[in-house]
Design a protein that fits this description.
Distance between the termini: 81 Å
Helix content: 25-40%
CATH class: Alpha Beta
Number of helices: 6
Strand content: 25-35%
Number of domains: 1
């Protein structure tokens, strides 16, 4: 009887520890597109400070959705590729807001082993935190029926420049399928476009990194 009582106490203690761990665990999103931009994140919901990272096993593409008139970036699993982006903390109750923003993608958990931290002073997240990524569910090569929006790309690049220029270059050099590129800055297709005055800086960056820039049209 004493042994049974001890076992019950241990079981209750184990459940309590699990509940405490669940309460203390945090949720992070790996942002690899417009959510890299801190102002764009805040439009959607509560978001913590960003942590620049590189994730192994993801490849970034320009992808299409039937419900929009522009392409966005999306990632697919690819063992031979890396993708830079940022991690930011999201309260659990705010995750649904980001799910709504990222509709059309599928949210998956990332392994901590895939994540490399780009700032030497940055402490790694503990393994009890969950890192989420929004995966594009289709083959990106099969459906390319909308143009790239320069206004949307500007939001991403401005976010990348919050880290530094080499980080922005890495974004451009590790993103694929650049065809059909529309300069829509004057009349943005993207509903969360950000007004700015860095067009010349961004275009100079694009010229130096993207051969396809010469085919961009107004």
């Amino acid at each position: 009887m004493v042994q049974s009582s001890r076992s019950q106490r241990k079981h209750c203690l184990s459940i309590q520890q699990q509940l405490i761990a669940m309460m203390l665990a945090k949720h992070y999103i790996f942002a690899y597109g417009s959510l890299i931009n801190s102002a764009s994140r805040r439009v959607t919901g509560t978001a913590g400070n960003s942590i620049p990272v590189r994730v192994q096993g993801l490849k970034r593409y320009w992808v299409s959705f039937a419900s929009t008139n522009m392409r966005a970036v999306g990632v697919r699993p690819d063992a031979d590729s890396d993708c830079n982006g940022v991690l930011f903390e999201v309260p659990q109750e705010e995750l649904e807001k980001f799910d709504i923003r990222e509709r059309g993608y599928v949210r998956h958990a990332l392994s901590h082993e895939q994540v490399s931290y780009l700032l030497p002073e940055q402490n790694k997240l503990s393994n009890d935190n969950t890192i989420w990524v929004y995966i594009y569910p289709e083959d990106p090569h099969k459906a390319q029926f909308n143009p790239i929006s320069q206004a949307y790309l500007d939001v991403i690049l401005l976010g990348c420049l919050e880290v530094d220029e080499s980080y922005a270059r890495e974004f451009l050099e590790t993103t694929h399928l650049w065809q059909d590129w529309h300069n829509d800055r004057l009349q943005p297709r993207y509903p969360r476009a950000i007004k700015h005055y860095q067009e010349h800086r961004l275009d100079a960056l694009l010229v130096s990194c993207c051969d396809e820039f010469t085919a961009r049209y107004d």
